[in-house]
């Protein structure tokens, strides 16, 4: 029987289409514009790559500090959608403001705020998965979100790319082009959230009390203590911390890495557009295979593939090498994210999804603190960008070993 999404599931998937456009912007046009601002300020390529990595790390650190607490508060009845709205508007407003900035330093500051709003919105969006669908449908619904997110985000991205690359021919300056491009992404992102905001109702929750924040901290503390009794959840989070850090480091720094190597900007953007196109059928195909064997087997395959990708990046020197990298990433990027999200959603208590997904987000959702810092520090210490990027392979080795251990400890495997 053909799988059909419910109306609410479709609206949940639609937000993936919207926020993925911002992800594309962060992975492509943002670092290119920052490179333009940095060059104007006389910053070297090595420092440019390092500063971009540090900014991404700060975003992750901020969400890591706020995520579990906000998630615990969001588990209270009627709070999840409220907080989702706040961080969504922070991200959208920051995205719009970025186009008006000409200082590299202020660009990084506002980028951190916008990226933090985006990343925080995903804590609550992911937590909504338990409310909008059933456990047996989670793998497919989560995969549909990423699949349509990849292909749908190409629409505003192509429009933005056209403005950025062709703006000069119609008399637009670089900054004017960026203003329009960032505005297109922000509007697309905001409009995609409207159907979900109008229809979503929190199905699983903790009863409201007079001291919401105080009680949320108490519940969060209890969750940390209870984690000792659920080693399969703890080990999965630890594994996810390592391997998804590697995944998001590659996503966040691919274009910056290509720019630092001196590769053609247009070629880099088109290669990453190809990643989105390849990702769409790949997510759906691997999800179908996961139904016949097991989702954990596909996840293991994806982590192993990323280990190969990180090693391959060491020898990356030409535009052709980058295109090959783009295809490889596209084949596995969506599935490693989608199946991780749905697997976690199935092993946690549904009524505490907010705080659990807050913990989940610490482990690298939307940015990578360990991976980007590892790349940045290694690059600055050795002066070798290829070596810095290849160090990500360590994260995948550790993540793969811990993930296989977590599977063995899962009582419902």
Annotate the secondary structure layout.
Blueprint: H1 7-27, H2 29-40, H3 45-74, H4 80-98, H5 104-127, H6 129-132, H7 138-152, H8 154-166, H9 174-199, H10 212-226, H11 231-260, H12 265-292, H13 295-312, H14 319-347, H15 353-362, H16 369-382, H17 385-390, H18 393-409
Please provide a written account of the structure.
The protein is mainly α. It has one domain: MFS general substrate transporter like domains (Growth Hormone, Chain: A). The chain contains 18 helices and no strands. Helix 1 packs antiparallel against helix 9, helix 5 packs antiparallel against helix 15 and helix 12 runs parallel beside helix 14. 56% of the residues are buried.
CATH-scheme architecture: Up-down Bundle
Please state the structural category.
Answer: mainly alpha
The H-level CATH homologous superfamily, spelled out, is MFS general substrate transporter like domains
Q: Average pLDDT across residues?
A: 80
What share of residues is helical? over 70%
Q: What's the N-to-C terminus distance? A: 25 Å
What order do the SSEs take from the amino end to the carboxyl end, as H and E? HHHHHHHHHHHHHHHHHH
């Amino acid at each position: 029987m053909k799988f059909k999404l419910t109306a609410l599931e479709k609206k949940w998937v639609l937000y993936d289409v919207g926020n993925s456009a911002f992800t594309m912007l962060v992975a492509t046009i943002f670092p290119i514009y920052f490179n333009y601002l940095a060059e104007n300020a006389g910053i070297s390529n090595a420092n440019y790559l390092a500063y971009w990595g540090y900014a991404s790390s700060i975003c992750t650190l901020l969400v890591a500090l706020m995520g579990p607490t906000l998630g615990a508060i969001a588990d209270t009845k009627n709070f999840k959608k409220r907080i989702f709205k706040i961080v969504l508007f922070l991200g959208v407003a920051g995205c719009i403001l970025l186009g008006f900035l000409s200082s590299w330093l202020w660009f990084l500051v506002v980028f951190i705020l916008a990226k933090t709003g985006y990343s925080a919105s995903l804590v609550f969006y992911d937590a909504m998965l338990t409310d909008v669908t059933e456990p047996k449908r989670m793998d497919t619904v989560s995969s549909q979100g990423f699949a349509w997110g990849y292909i749908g985000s190409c629409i505003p991205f192509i429009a933005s790319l056209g403005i950025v690359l062709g703006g000069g021919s119609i008399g637009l300056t670089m900054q004017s082009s960026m203003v329009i491009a960032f505005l297109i992404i922000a509007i697309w992102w905001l409009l995609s959230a409207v159907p979900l905001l109008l229809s979503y109702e929190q199905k699983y929750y903790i009863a409201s009390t007079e001291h919401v924040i105080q009680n949320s901290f108490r519940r969060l503390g209890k969750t940390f203590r209870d984690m000792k009794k659920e080693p399969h959840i703890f080990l999965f989070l630890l594994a996810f911390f390592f391997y998804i850090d590697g995944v998001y480091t590659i996503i966040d720094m691919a274009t910056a890495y290509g720019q630092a190597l001196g590769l053609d900007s247009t070629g880099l953007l088109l290669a990453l557009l190809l990643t989105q196109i390849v990702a769409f059928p790949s997510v759906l195909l691997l999800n179908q295979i996961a139904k016949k064997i097991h989702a954990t087997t596909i996840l293991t395959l994806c982590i192993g593939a990323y280990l190969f990708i990180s090693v391959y990046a060491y020898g990356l020197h030409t535009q052709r090498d980058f295109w090959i990298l783009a295809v490889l990433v596209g084949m596995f990027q969506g599935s490693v994210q989608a199946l991780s999200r749905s697997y976690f959603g199935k092993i946690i208590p549904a009524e505490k999804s907010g705080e659990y997904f807050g913990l989940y987000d610490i482990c690298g959702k939307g940015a990578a603190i360990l991976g980007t810092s590892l790349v940045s520090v290694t690059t600055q210490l050795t002066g070798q960008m290829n070596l810095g990027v290849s160090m990500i392979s360590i994260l995948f080795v550790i993540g793969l070993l811990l993930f296989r251990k977590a599977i063995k400890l899962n009582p419902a495997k």
